[in-house]
# Entry
Amino acid sequence: MSWLVTGGAGYIGAHVVRALSAAGLTPVVLDDLSSGQPSFVPEDVALVEGSILDRALVEGALREHSVEGVIHVAGFKYAGVSVQRPLHTYAQNVEGTRVILEAMEAAGVANIVFSSSAAVFGTPDVDLVTEDTAKRPASPYGESKLIGEWMLRDQGVATAASATPLRHTSLRYFNVVGSADSTVYDVSPHNLFPIVFEALLNGQTPSIFGNDYNTPDGTNVRDYVHVGDIAAAHVEAAKRLAAGEPIEPAYNLGSGDGLSVKQIMDAVVRVTGIEFVPTMGPRRPGDPDRIVATGELAARDLDWTMRYTVDEMVRTGWEARRNAG
# Structure
């Protein structure tokens, strides 16, 4: 039996694939390669090239590879861009998830781990986000992820009395960084680490947007979580589903305390040996002072823990990016 990883040629998905293999499970990748990299897929892992919107392709992959569950990582992940491209975002994230659930039902596949997002919370008015914190997504991207969670819930109810009732969980996380494999790195043009790394590789000075936030050092504070830890939590969730063990509908994969942008920049200087003082720009509209989540529930059920220091997050990400040339 195998697990289908949608978006398995992407930064996070490729780490999930490796974590599955390390756990003795058989991954199969489904990816349209719109942002994924074929080189991120190990040679011994099957790659089905195509879109999650292609119902026949998805169902065929589930049947051909005797899939027992899906880890659904594929999606359009750019919150800011989703404001300009809402219909595209909904097509990829909402319709794509619907198609996967429909194909799973037809193929008799009952387990799914959904890669959700902390964007479902929007800008929370609490210091520490829990699973029960109010959901107020502030972008089409966040809305699409919340709708995905609703669809899993509703399909679970609808199939409860069937031969293959849907078992599911959604994993919400914030800023994923670093690398657990020197051949896989973050290729996003919108994430902090790759933006900083590209600036340094091009001889430019990274920027900080706003240093007057209500935080200890004036820069905003976020959850930064290592991609290796994220991948491990997905695998633990998959194993729990497959074993029929109790599982929550959603987990926050949070750090509990967070890191500031300045702390990240200081770590970059220490790790890379490149001395720089970040330029200061104005705040970006809508950026809150602090968004940090607790990971206590995931720690209880999914062996969730922060295994990497901030310097290790930077070092592993920097080494993987430099290996790419």
About this structure: The two ends are 37 Å apart (CA to CA). The domain at 2-176+224-253 is CATH 3.40.50.720 (Rossmann fold).
